[in-house]
């Protein structure tokens, strides 16, 4: 009696990558919505920085610009990790993912420094406009901080999974998902940096 040949292995579904794409779209929509509210209320206040930003607020331009440069560096290193795992170069994959997480911590540190320099109370009693400004600044930048921490954890998890032999040149969906998330995170921060820290 003749047996049928074995069926081909089913193609692997890209659940993590699809989930990351959907989460990235949600991140872009969330930050775009927050920035739209920020711009709308700034324009309703007269549209000028002098009227919108309280006199006591000093935004550290160098620190915020270095945050943007560091985010671009993180985007480069996570792309390096994706390229390295595609060639089965595990040593460079580990190094690139570790650098991505370190860049994330550096941006987090710079954001905390920026908060200290702003010395902005969450609510300014008797000044509704200043209160709106401070609440929106903390809402927009706080959202970015939460997203950044998620990115750092994502990079750490992918590092441990790669160390455990989960990813290789044949299957590196997790590294691709992490790279996508960090590219979106860098783009989102560029928008936050321009609207909140440059245009004000």
Structural class: mainly alpha
Number of strands: 0
Largest sheet: none
What coarse outline follows from CA principal-axis ratios? Answer: elongated
- What's the CATH H-level superfamily name? Cytochrome c oxidase, subunit III, four-helix bundle
* Integer-rounded radius of gyration: 21 Å
Unreliable runs: none
Succession of helices and strands: HHHHHH
The CATH class, by name, is Mainly Alpha
Q: Strand fraction band? A: under 5%
Tell me the helix content.
Answer: over 70%
Distance between the termini: 79 Å
Number of DSSP helical runs: 6
List descriptors.
single chain, Four Helix Bundle (Hemerythrin (Met), subunit A), elongated, 200 residues, 6 helices, mainly alpha
Describe the structure in brief.
The protein has helices at 15-44, 49-52, 61-86, 90-118, 128-163, 173-199. By secondary structure, the protein is mainly α.
């Amino acid at each position: 009696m003749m047996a049928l040949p074995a069926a081909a292995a089913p193609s692997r579904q890209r659940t993590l990558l699809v989930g990351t794409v959907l989460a990235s779209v949600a991140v872009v929509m969330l930050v775009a919505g927050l920035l739209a509210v920020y711009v709308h209320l700034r324009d309703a206040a007269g549209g000028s920085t002098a009227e919108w930003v309280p006199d006591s607020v000093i935004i550290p331009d160098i620190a915020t610009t270095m945050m943007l440069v560091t985010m671009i560096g993180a985007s480069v290193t996570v792309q390096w990790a994706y390229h390295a795992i595609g060639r089965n170069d595990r040593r460079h994959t580990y190094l690139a993912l570790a650098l991505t997480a370190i860049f994330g911590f550096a941006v987090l540190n710079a954001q905390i420094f920026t908060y200290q320099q702003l010395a902005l109370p969450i609510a300014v009693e008797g000044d509704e406009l200043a209160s709106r400004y401070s609440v929106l600044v903390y809402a927009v930048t706080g959202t970015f901080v939460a997203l950044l921490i998620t990115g750092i954890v994502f990079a750490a998890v992918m590092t441990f999974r790669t160390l455990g032999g989960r990813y290789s040149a044949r299957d590196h969906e997790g590294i691709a998902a992490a790279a996508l998330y960090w590219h979106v995170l860098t783009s989102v921060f560029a928008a936050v940096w321009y609207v909140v820290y440059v245009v004000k």
